[in-house]
Structures are given as structure tokens and as C-alpha cells.
Design a protein that fits this description.
The chain contains 31 helices and 24 strands. By secondary structure, it is α/β, with parallel strands linked by helices. Helix 7 packs across helix 8, helix 9 packs antiparallel against helix 11 and helix 26 crosses helix 27. The longest helix has 124 residues. The two termini are 104 Å apart.
Length: 918
């Protein structure tokens, strides 16, 4: 993959190199110039030739010329064509100023440069204007007419161009001014639309109407030639004819052939248009308005010379075109050769790159092979090491099982000696209620211990292949119904819906099973269902025969099992809840062993927070003999009660006893502590840390006993939250733990624990530690009360003394805040407990228990005591009257202050002052 990646990168860089190279060889910016001619005539053909001849000298520009054929609509369409097709500049000779001005303005406003030539538009919405002095041409024509007239007073017919055309208007104006100023007269002036065909009928009509005319003035040579033909046809060869444009093939040829008498040269300046356009595009200086001066007349005296010059110019133009074509061919060949040269270089570079990649791939493959061989060798070593570790682990597991087996054998004798006396005591009738409760707990846990020992021994037998089946033919439906009977009482007690479902009705299911082992499998599955199903849940047991198999299902609506644990729950010693296990981790493993011993399978389906379904599939088999009646059942009410029930105790509260909160997830531990301490304490319990924190804040107990390992919230977090809460921070916390590691104790003390007690604990030690913690807290209260708490002194000594009392910083801060509030508003007789509790952010009951726990005074007593001490201090240190001191310390009347003072100090305020001589 890495070689492919490197190859792609190399090809990418070569492609970029070729692109840059070819781009360097290509031409730069090529400007597109559009030329819109208003018509097609000999003068404009000459201009177009000049434009094309000039453009040959500029390789960075191309030109496209369009003719409107004297149509405004077509010329507007041509202008829009240039604008919409990316032309960089547009050159326009407007057909009519009024019609073309809006279209030219629109293009100009779009940011496209526009050059107006020959004719003009209305306004100045253009980039540049190049025109000829048409009025000057008109004056020169008038001056020439006056010169050639026979009597010096020409009578003139004027044939002008298109109406509205600016050249026609200017030529007429210049001619008319000059002619009339010198005695001439324009007999008639009519439009010829710049065409010979339109001019002929106009001239014919005018000559017939005005026979006195001796001169015809036409605005271009074509109309002048038409007028000449009409005059010749009417035998009026005496009429002088003047034209304008002096195009070589039309006007000058007509003068040379004596068709017309004279024509005036109208400059085309095609080269000037291209030069101005390129200057605009390249940002070079240019003149915005250029007016080309009028030139002299062309008559028989110079017509032949001009024709010869025109022929020479045409020949030179032809040669330039041929030369340009040859240069273009040479340049095309050069470009092709250059492209081939650079392409060859690129191919050579690409070949070198491919060769490099091939060699590199070979080297990398060689190194990769060596690395793979080294890795394979390492994997083989790890495999051998793993095999050795597995063998050692297997040996260790067998040693562990052997140890457990030996220990279990050793425990059986003392367990028997314990179990029988406990059973005898449990059946005695002369025990007190407390003694009976304790014996019941002992009897229950003896049964659990005996069952665990039996499971370990059976599992060891299965591991060694010494666990045998003792099959007997039984009616499974009747047997499982008997097993179920022992669980109905505990189900009713917990409001659990327990049901047995058999789709085949009362039809007996006869099969051969080892009843004892399947009974223990059933007991394990259904007891687990009870352990993990909350009160008011549902547990369903069903069985049916499917083919040659007996299928048993135990389903519940309990906590469920996560996908991570589903594949491991049948492994030995595996516990789903590793932090707060509810079993030994061997029950399901042993159940699987018993099922497989029958040739069956056991499986589970589960969804978190919805429940689990355990399915046991056993092959149906039969042995010779009759159906065995129900054997002695191991699943008895006492067995189920020992496994699932919890002893209950009656809770009675005594107002004179301290309040004790016990937090533990084990109901037996809660019951045991309640039994041991109920004579001395009022006891409330919580099953987890979260509930414990809630009850501590609500009831403000005098002491908390908290287990370390619990679900939902563990004991360390519970202790930390209790110590951080202002209302509960003073409460001593005694931690219970089954772990004796110092690290855990350090964590507990860091979180504010006041003591530790390890499980199994001694009842006398538990009583002693509880009494000691409460006694120490009382001594702290006494020390607290012995401090000088006068508010006046608090002002002078705002910080604790150098030897602080053994209470938390939160307690010090709490009491300091209380004193600050009291001092700030001491003179207010309406300042009461409710207002101070609100300012402290506590409920009245919480505030009361907190102050009581810290000082052993009720809030009312403490406030009155602090006011009296402040009053006592003012009596001894100031000259204020008793009334002033009473109101200043918040007493409603001086009489009430005097009464309280006498009760506290044994004398009245006046007597105290008199005694001190003040």
C-alpha cells in the first residue's frame, strides 16, 4: 500500500511539472476585440482592411468585424453578441445615435470598454471617441463648389445620408454655412440613405423640378455616382458633382474616369482604432476624444497618383499576409517541436520514476520479508510462552481447586458441630426476641455456608470426572411443581408474580433424570431470579417437550445482564457485579456442569433493565423400571428462606436516644446491627450510598455507620458528600469494610471518615466505637461552648485560635457565618431562628439539629446566650444605660433583658454595675 501511495504521489508531481512546462510554452492573454460597422460600403471595406492589417502586428489580440447593413436592430444584436461572448472591448460605428445610445450605455455600464468611431451617440457613455471633422469637410466641399461654379454662384442640390446620422447632420451644417455665406444657394436637400439606388430617383425628381441647378453635393461617393448617371441621362453634363469618402475603388476611380468632378478624402484610421483599443485594455495612456481634421479634395489632378499609391499599398498588404502565414506556420512547427521536446523530457523523468519505484518496491519487499520472519519468530516465542503460562495457570487453578476442596473437607466437621447446636437453639422456645433473631441469622448463614461447601466439592468431582449420574424415571411436571411450592411464600411476601406454565396441560412428562442435580440446577436459576428481580416483578417458569428434548425456561423482569458479561456468566468463579457481588460465582458454573452431565445445554438471553431468560435443554431418555415417586426434597421452605428471606425487626423510636443511620446493601447486616444497637439508639437504614446521603440530610443523625462497598454509590463517595454538606458535616462516620488494606483506610480518612471497623466485627467493639464517637462529639461541643463566643470579641479576633478545635473547617465556617449574621442584625428584636436559617440556606429543622449538634444549645437558647454576653460586655466596658444596652442587643424591653440577665448571672444589670463600682 505504501508503494502504491508513493507511486501516485510521483505521478501527481510529474503531471504538475508537465502542466507548468506546457503553460510556460503557451501564449499569454489574448484580447478579443469586436467591431460593429453600421453598413457595408467601399469606405468601410477600406477601414476593415486597415483594421486587419494592424491586427497582424499584435499577436496578443484577435478581431471580429460585423456589419449591421444599415439596420438598428441588427446592430443592437451585434453589440449584445460581443458583450455576451466575452469580448474585452467593443468598437461601434452607430447607425443612428438615438436608437443605438441605450444599447451602448447598457454595455458600458456592465464594465465593458466601448470605442465610438465615425459617428456619435447621445451623451458620453463611452470609453473613447474617434471621429472626423465632418463640419470641416462640409466647409471644404462648399469652398470647392464656389470655386468650380461657372458663374461663382452655385445653385446646389444636396443629397445627404441617413436622417438622424451625425455625419450627415454635421456635413450639411458645415456646407450650408460656408455656401450661403459666399453667395451660394441650396435649392433642395433630400436624403439618399447613403446608397446609390436610393439616390438616383431622388436626383431625377429634383433635376426635373429644378432645372436651374448647376451643382450636386452628395455626402458619399456612391450617391454622387448615382447623381452623375441621372445627370448624364438627362443630358445635363454641365452640372458639377462633388462626393465624399475618396475610397480608391469607388470615389477616386470615379474622379479619374470623370464620372464625378471631385471627392473629399474621409480618413478611415483603422490602425488608430486597434491601437487605442489595446492601449485601453493594457492600461496605457490614450486620448478619450480624438477628432481627425478634414483633408483636401481629390480631382483629376491627383486621382491617378492616389490610385497608384493604393495599388502599391494593396501589394504590400498581400505580401504582409503571405509573410504572416509563413511565420504562423513556422511558429506552429516550433510549438509542436517544443511540446515534443518537453513531453520527451517528461516521459524520461516518468521512466526514471517508475524504475525508482520498482527498485524501491523490491528493497522494501526484501526488508518486509525480513521483518515478517523476525515477527514470526517473535510470535512463535510468544506462543511458546503463552503455552507455558497456560500450563502454569492450569496447574495453579488445579492447585486452587485442590486447596478449596481440602479446606471444604476440613470445614465440614466444624460446620456440622456449629449447625446442629444452632438448629437446636433455633427451635428452642425459651429465647428472648433478640436472641431468637440472632439465632435465626446464624442458622440461615450456616445453611448458605453448607451449600457453598457442597458446591465446591461437587465441582471438584466434576473436574476430576468422578461425578456420576443416578438416573431415575420421574414425572417432571409433578416434580417441578413440588419444587415451586417452596418459593411461593417468599414471592407473596415480595409481591412477585411467580407462575409455572406447561402448554401441554396435565399430560405427564416422563423422563429419566438425576433428580438431585436437576433440583440444584433449578434452585440456582430461580434463586438468582429472585435475587435480581425487584419487588412487584414477575418470574415465570415453563417447560415443554420439543421433539426428543425437554426444554425448561426461567425468565424474570429483573436487572438483566450486559452483553459484555453474557459470554462469561457460566465460567467458574465469574461474577457479573465484580464490585458488589451477590454470590460466589460458582453456582451457574456448577449448573452448567450438571446439565452437560445429562448431555444437555444451558443458555441465556438478556437485556439490561428488562430481564433475563435462562433456557435448559435436556435430552429425553428412559430406563427400565417404574416411575419413581417424589424423593426427599432438598428445596424446602427453610432452604429458600435461608437463601432469599431477610429477618425483620420492629423499629421503635425513643426521643431520648441518639439517632443512628446505618448504610449497607446487605439486609442481614442491617438487621444484625439493628438488633445489637436498638436498645441504645433510634435506628434508620439505607440500602446504598445515594439513599444514605438523602436520609442524612433529612434527619441529621447523631452517628452514621456506612459500608464501603455498595451499589449505586459506594461508601467512600457517600462519606465525602456527607462531610461536604454543611448540614451534615459535623456527623461522625464509622466505616465498615471486609477489606483490611491500608490504602482503602487512607482513602476513607481522606474522605472524612472518623473510624473504621473490619468485618467480621465484634458486637462489643461496635458498641464501644459508636459510644466513643458520640462521646467525643459531645466533648467537642463542650469545648466549643467554652470558647469566648461574644460577638464583640469575635470582631476583634475573626480567625480561629492558634490551637483549633478538632472539628472540620466546614463547621468552623458555618459557626462563623452564624455569628456574622447575628452580629450584623443583633439590635433587631424580630431576628428569629426562621430568618437566620433562611439566610444560612437551611431548613429550620436542619438548622436546629446542626446548631444543637455543634453547641448542645437550641438556636433560641444560643441566640439569647450570645445577646446576654454582648450585653454583659457592654455593661462592663461602656457608660450606656441599661435600656440602651437592652435595645442594642435585640431585647424587646429593658425589663425582659433584666430578667434574662438575672437568670444567667444571678444578679441584675444595675447590681452588676454597682458591684464593679461603675
Amino acid at each position: 500500500m505504501r508503494n502504491i501511495f508513493m507511486g501516485k504521489r510521483l505521478i501527481y508531481f510529474i503531471t504538475i511539472f508537465i502542466s507548468i512546462t506546457l503553460a510556460a510554452c503557451s501564449e499569454g492573454k489574448v484580447y478579443k476585440i469586436g467591431v460593429s460597422q453600421c453598413s457595408q460600403d467601399d469606405w468601410r471595406s477600406k477601414m476593415n482592411d486597415e483594421i486587419n492589417r494592424e491586427i497582424m502586428l499584435h499577436e496578443d489580440a484577435v478581431v471580429e468585424i460585423r456589419s449591421a447593413d444599415d439596420s438598428n436592430a441588427k446592430q443592437i444584436a451585434d453589440i449584445r453578441y460581443f458583450a455576451d461572448n466575452g469580448f474585452d472591448i467593443i468598437i461601434v460605428s452607430p447607425n443612428e445615435a438615438e436608437a443605438l445610445t441605450p444599447a451602448i450605455k447598457d454595455v458600458y455600464d456592465r464594465g465593458i470598454p466601448v470605442i465610438i468611431f465615425d459617428r456619435n451617440i447621445i451623451g458620453d457613455t463611452y470609453t473613447a471617441h474617434i471621429g472626423v471633422d465632418d463640419m470641416g469637410i462640409g466647409r471644404q466641399a462648399a469652398h470647392y463648389a464656389l470655386h468650380i461654379a461657372t458663374d461663382g454662384h452655385p445653385k446646389v442640390i444636396e443629397i445627404f445620408g441617413l436622417p438622424g446620422s451625425t455625419p450627415a447632420e454635421n456635413r450639411h451644417e458645415g456646407f450650408s454655412e460656408e455656401l450661403t455665406a459666399n453667395g451660394g444657394k441650396i435649392i433642395a436637400s433630400e436624403p439618399g440613405n447613403w446608397n446609390k439606388e436610393d439616390a438616383i430617383p431622388v436626383v431625377d425628381s429634383l433635376l426635373r423640378i429644378y432645372p436651374e441647378v448647376n451643382l450636386i453635393y452628395a455626402h458619399n461617393d456612391r450617391m454622387a455616382i448615382g447623381a452623375s448617371e441621372v445627370a448624364h441621362s438627362l443630358r445635363r453634363d454641365d452640372i458639377k458633382i462633388i462626393g465624399i469618402d475618396a475610397a480608391p475603388e469607388i470615389g477616386i476611380r470615379a474622379v479619374a474616369d470623370s464620372v464625378i468632378d471631385a471627392t473629399f478624402l474621409y480618413p478611415t484610421e483603422g490602425h488608430r482604432l486597434i491601437q487605442t483599443a489595446l492601449a485601453i485594455l493594457k492600461g496605457e495612456p490614450y486620448s478619450r476624444n480624438v477628432q481627425i481634421p478634414a483633408s483636401s479634395a481629390v480631382d483629376l489632378s491627383n486621382a491617378d497618383i492616389l490610385l497608384l499609391q493604393d495599388e502599391g499599398l494593396k501589394e504590400e498588404t498581400r505580401k504582409m499576409k503571405v509573410l504572416k502565414e509563413k511565420i504562423d506556420d513556422y511558429w506552429a512547427q516550433h510549438s509542436s517541436q517544443t511540446f515534443l521536446f518537453y513531453a520527451s523530457i517528461a516521459i524520461i523523468v516518468l521512466l526514471f520514476g517508475v524504475i525508482f519505484l520498482v527498485l524501491r518496491a523490491f528493497w522494501q519487499h526484501h526488508r518486509h520479508q525480513a521483518a515478517l520472519m523476525s515477527q514470526n519468530k517473535l510470535l512463535e516465542e510468544q506462543r511458546d510462552m503463552q503455552k507455558s503460562l497456560n500450563e502454569k495457570l492450569q496447574e495453579a487453578t488445579q492447585s486452587k481447586l485442590m486447596f478449596f476442596t481440602n479446606v471444604s473437607h476440613d470445614l465440614r466437621t466444624p460446620l456440622t458441630l456449629i449447625a446442629e447446636p444452632v438448629a437446636q437453639l433455633n427451635g428452642a422456645s425459651n429465647l428472648t426476641a433478640q436472641q431468637q433473631s440472632l439465632v435465626t441469622i446464624a442458622d440461615k448463614n450456616v445453611k448458605i455456608l453448607r451449600r457453598l461447601i457442597n458446591q465446591i466439592l461437587d465441582f471438584r468431582k466434576y473436574e476430576n470426572g468422578k461425578l456420576d449420574l443416578h438416573l431415575s424415571e420421574i414425572d417432571f411436571g409433578r416434580t417441578i411443581a413440588e419444587w415451586m411450592e417452596a418459593f411461593y411464600p417468599i414471592a407473596r411476601k415480595r409481591d412477585i408474580k411467580l407462575s409455572l406454565d406447561h402448554p401441554d396441560g396435565d399430560k405427564p412428562v416422563i423422563t429419566a433424570l438425576d433428580t438431585e442435580k436437576i433440583e440444584r440446577v433449578f434452585f440456582n436459576l430461580i434463586s438468582n431470579a429472585f435475587k435480581y428481580t425487584p419487588d412487584n416483578g414477575t418470574i415465570s417458569v415453563s417447560y415443554r417437550v420439543i421433539g426428543d428434548n425437554l426444554t425448561i425456561k426461567v425468565s424474570d423482569t429483573g436487572e438483566g445482564i450486559s452483553e459484555r458479561d453474557l459470554g462469561n456468566i457460566f465460567d467458574r468463579f465469574y461474577q457479573v457485579d465484580r464490585v458488589h457481588p451477590k454470590g460466589s460465582g460458582i453456582g451457574l458454573s456448577l449448573a452448567k456442569a450438571f446439565v452437560e452431565l445429562h448431555g444437555g445445554t444451558i443458555s441465556v438471553e438478556s437485556t439490561l433493565n428488562k430481564g433475563s431468560v435462562f433456557t435448559v435443554v435436556l435430552p429425553m431418555r428412559h430406563i427400565s423400571g417404574n416411575v419413581t415417586a417424589s424423593l426427599e426434597r432438598n428445596i424446602t421452605d427453610k432452604e429458600v428462606s435461608a437463601e432469599l428471606s431477610t429477618p425483620e425487626s420492629e423499629i421503635r423510636f425513643d426521643a431520648e436516644k441518639p439517632l443512628l443511620l446505618v448504610i449497607d446493601d446487605n439486609k442481614d447486616i442491617l438487621y444484625l446491627i439493628n438488633t445489637l444497637l436498638q436498645d441504645t439508639y433510634n435506628i434508620i437504614t439505607a440500602p446504598n450510598g445515594r439513599e444514605g446521603v438523602r436520609l442524612a440530610v433529612k434527619y441529621i443523625p447523631d452517628l452514621i455507620i456506612c459500608d464501603v462497598m455498595m451499589p449505586v454509590m459506594d461508601g467512600l463517595e457517600c462519606c465525602r458528600r456527607i462531610k461536604e454538606e454543611v448540614s451534615t458535616s459535623h456527623i461522625p462516620v464509622l466505616m465498615l469494610t471486609a477489606c483490611s488494606m491500608d490504602e482503602q483506610r487512607v482513602q476513607g480518612y481522606d474522605n472524612g471518615a472518623d473510624g473504621y471497623l473490619a468485618k467480621p466485627f465484634n458486637a462489643d467493639v461496635l458498641r464501644s466505637q459508636c459510644a466513643s464517637l458520640i462521646s467525643n462529639r459531645k466533648r467537642i461541643k463542650e469545648l466549643w461552648n467554652s470558647r469566648d463566643t461574644a460577638v464583640g470579641q469575635t470582631t476583634q479576633q475573626p480567625h480561629p485560635s492558634p490551637r483549633p478545635l478538632p472539628v472540620s473547617d466546614i463547621d468552623n465556617d458555618f459557626y462563623r457565618r452564624f455569628l456574622d449574621i447575628l452580629k450584623a442584625d443583633m439590635g433587631n428584636s424580630d431576628l428569629n431562628v426562621d430568618k437566620i436559617a433562611s439566610l444560612m440556606g437551611l431548613e429550620r429543622s436542619q438548622f436546629y439539629r446542626k446548631i444543637k449538634a455543634l453547641t448542645n444549645y437550641s438556636p433560641v437558647e444560643l441566640i439569647r446566650r450570645l445577646r446576654l454576653k454582648q450585653g454583659h460586655n457592654l455593661l462592663l466596658t461602656t457608660e450606656k444605660t441599661v435600656s440602651e444596652i437592652a435595645y442594642e442587643t435585640g431585647f424587646s424591653t429593658p425589663a425582659y433583658f433584666t430578667k434574662c440577665y438575672r437568670d444567667a448571672y444571678g444578679e441584675t444589670p444595675i447590681e452588676a454595675r454597682n458591684r464593679l463600682g461603675r
